[in-house]
Automatic annotation (TrEMBL):
This is Holliday junction branch migration complex subunit RuvB. Its main location: cytoplasm. ATP binds at residues 19-20, 61, 64-66, 127-129, 170, 180, 217. Pfam families: AAA_lid_4, RuvB_N, WHD_RuvB. The gene is ruvB. Residues 50-199 form the AAA+ ATPase domain. It is an enzyme of class 3 (hydrolase). It catalyses: ATP + H2O = ADP + phosphate + H(+). It comes from the Bacteria. Keywords: ATP-binding, Cytoplasm, DNA damage, DNA recombination, DNA repair, DNA-binding, Helicase, Hydrolase, Nucleotide-binding.
Amino acid sequence: ERLVSGEQYIDDQAIDAALRPKKLDDFIGQERVREQLSLVLHSALRRGRTPDHVLLSGGPGLGKTTLAMIIAAELGRPLRITSGPAIERAGDLAAVLSTLSEGEVLFLDEIHRMARPAEEMLYLAMEDFRVDVVVGKGPGATAIPLDIAPFTLVGATTRAGMLPGPLRDRFGFVAHMDFYDPAELEIIVRRSAGLLGVRIDDRAAAEVAFRSRGTPRIANRLLRRVRDFAEVRADGYVTLDLARSALDLYEVDESGLDRLDLAVLRALLTKFGGGPVGLSTLAVSVGEEPETVEVVAEPFLVRQGLLARTPRGRIATPAAWTHLGLAPPQVPGP
Ligand code: ADP
């Protein structure tokens, strides 16, 4: 199990829900996204129209679902949640779209994983608030146009690059969510500690924030693990020393790299001499799917300046060698 993966686990679900900010003003960080989104929502409210469709792109655990919920709350509209993998046929999507109420917010998570025929249906729905329901098969099949209520689609994706152009173009507002700064995560950790009743020292909160891979979900998860540790090993008050010991125990290193990050980095250095190496070769060498390495591990390694993506493949930076305490290969002299 990856303690520091941004992915949501079963035991996260209830906690995620409890810790979610409910209003845009309580959403921490992502300043620009928040400001732009606030304009989109408030101008729509003022004009009494449904706002443009919104696309949120960014890694797991960065707050896409939270923002979708906030959008619905700010608009005072109900929220319907579904996801790309749940839509296997166009009919699955038609069933959702045709039962939306006026102004409803539809959150479509992992939108890049939706079935192709459904995608085409979505184009029409987003643009004209209409779906064509196909009745019958073969030459006798007819498309019956069906009006649907104006709605706002909030699409989320971890891979914006995977979205077909025509789909992307139909979003009036595209927001890219980036990793959070340690200072922002520290605010999140303190806020969560307050909500969960965890007593934590400021320096310990900063340490948890710093080791959270720039990701709020991980910050909340590490906070719980650190709390457990403090309850079992001490009186429950989380000090810096306790936080450090707990984080070491859970194999999160001082800069927040977890086991997969370190495995990828180590493979890149020791098996491929620092690269360049192709993504799939690198993924195979650590026993992971290329998508996991690309979406989960790499963005953070790139952000930390340890890995670079080049047209010839992945390469390690000099900082990567230092980070793992290894000597870079000698460059042959002239
Ligand atoms: P995603 O949908 O991108 O995977 P979520 O919206 O489910 O991520 O966020 C995961 C958890 O992180 C939520 O429980 C929420 O409490 C917390 N979180 C995310 N973004 C923020 C934020 N900006 N401020 C405070 N907490 C946040």
